[in-house]
């Protein structure tokens, strides 16, 4: 089976590629099973993430149609689309939207042409500061260009699914954390940011009063949700979170427990320029995904953080 992963040098894409490689080995033995191909322009991804990857790698930009010329020689059964500019503070809003949306359209057309099942990454950013818990059918309020680009892709998918019998499933990831996110710098999870401050003995500065919350989901669960989506024939757009948000104060408590430290948060005011664009809470209503795909996240926040830091010690 030929599988294409766009953005496979990134955090989630590389975890997914390595999990597929492992699944193929377990199911079919060495040299059999999945023929994996990654396409990534390395704009944020890191080849270090793919040290153990044995499939093919193409350096290419999915927002450019010509990048698909080489890929057209293969027939793909499944495409995982993870490629995206993911830095929400990216300075050029127009470029971010056009690259992400053009990239999405090219991948969608390519999937349609090759008859592949498309599993793509959407985001909780589409909900902005909308009502909680966030449900797939509620009104969307993206707060930045990144969220707008994800809304655009989801809109195209809804229209496509209504018109054609395309095999498309969108996964609105909530806040993902886990091994392989270091290269994302300021865009890495709050869990990674705070753990690095603890490691360097720096103050844990967070916005007043640390009661903002995130539905943090461990990358192993995100990978499992993608594999589940690949193997089902469900179509549509689904939240992928844990349904259990955690405050920043609580994350600091958990990290102190893991690292055996006693850091206290230092609170400071949200800069007024940021206030309008800041997402205060994310909280997934996970009932649609669990009803249709019969799947639930496995790791609690405590278990996920423990697994994360034991794996990179
Ligand atoms: N990490 C999260 O918390 C989170 C939450 C919601 C949604 N998502 C989505 O999940 C997907 C993966 O995110 P991630 O956290 O792994 O980020 P990442 O930045 O680590 O990965 C994105 C990858 O896409 C590549 N890329 C970017 N533009 C490209 C292009 N035009 N052509 C080819 N490759 C390109 C980058 O080089 C990178 O390897 C993204 O679509 C992101 O929007 C992530």
UniProtKB/TrEMBL annotation:
<keyword id="KW-0119">Carbohydrate metabolism</keyword>
<dbReference type="GO" id="GO:0008712">
    <property type="term" value="F:ADP-glyceromanno-heptose 6-epimerase activity"/>
</dbReference>
<dbReference type="InterPro" id="IPR011912">
    <property type="entry name" value="Heptose_epim"/>
</dbReference>
<dbReference type="InterPro" id="IPR001509">
    <property type="entry name" value="Epimerase_deHydtase"/>
</dbReference>
<dbReference type="Pfam" id="PF01370">
    <property type="entry name" value="Epimerase"/>
</dbReference>
<keyword id="KW-0413">Isomerase</keyword>
<dbReference type="GO" id="GO:0005975">
    <property type="term" value="P:carbohydrate metabolic process"/>
</dbReference>
<dbReference type="InterPro" id="IPR036291">
    <property type="entry name" value="NAD(P)-bd_dom_sf"/>
</dbReference>
<dbReference type="GO" id="GO:0050661">
    <property type="term" value="F:NADP binding"/>
</dbReference>
<feature type="domain" description="NAD-dependent epimerase/dehydratase">
    <location>
        <begin position="3"/>
        <end position="241"/>
    </location>
</feature>
<protein>
    <submittedName>
        <fullName>ADP-glyceromanno-heptose 6-epimerase</fullName>
    </submittedName>
</protein>
<keyword id="KW-0521">NADP</keyword>
């Amino acid at each position: 089976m030929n599988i294409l992963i766009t953005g496979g040098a990134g955090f989630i894409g590389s975890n997914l590629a390595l999990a597929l490689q492992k699944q193929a080995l377990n199911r079919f033995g060495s040299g059999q099973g999945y023929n994996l191909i990654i396409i990534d322009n390395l704009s944020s991804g890191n080849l270090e993430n793919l040290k153990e990857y044995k499939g093919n790698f193409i350096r290419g930009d999915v927002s450019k149609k010509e990048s698909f010329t080489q890929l057209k020689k293969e027939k793909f059964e499944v495409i995982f689309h993870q490629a995206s500019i993911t830095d929400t503070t990216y300075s050029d809003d127009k470029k971010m939207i056009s690259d992400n949306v053009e990239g999405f359209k090219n991948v969608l057309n390519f999937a349609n042409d090759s008859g592949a099942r498309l599993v793509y990454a959407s985001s909780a950013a589409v909900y902005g500061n909308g009502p909680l818990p966030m449900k797939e059918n509620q009104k969307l309020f993206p707060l930045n260009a990144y969220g707008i680009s994800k809304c655009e892709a989801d809109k195209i998918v809804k229209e496509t699914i209504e018109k054609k019998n395309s095999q498309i499933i969108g996964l609105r990831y909530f806040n993902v954390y886990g091994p392989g996110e270091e290269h994302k710098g300021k865009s890495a999870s709050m869990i990674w940011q705070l753990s690095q401050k603890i490691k360097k003995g720096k103050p844990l500065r967070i916005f007043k009063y640390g009661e903002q919350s995130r539905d943090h989901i461990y990358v192993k669960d995100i990978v499992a949700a993608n594999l589940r989506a690949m193997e089902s024939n469900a179509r549509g757009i689904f939240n992928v979170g844990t349904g259990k948000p955690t405050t920043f104060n609580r994350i600091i408590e958990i990290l102190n427990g893991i690292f055996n430290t006693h850091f206290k948060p230092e609170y400071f005011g949200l800069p007024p320029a940021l206030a309008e664009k800041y997402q205060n809470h994310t909280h997934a209503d996970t009932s649609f995904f669990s009803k249709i795909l019969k799947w639930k996240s496995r790791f609690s926040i405590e278990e996920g953080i423990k697994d994360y830091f034991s794996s990179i010690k």
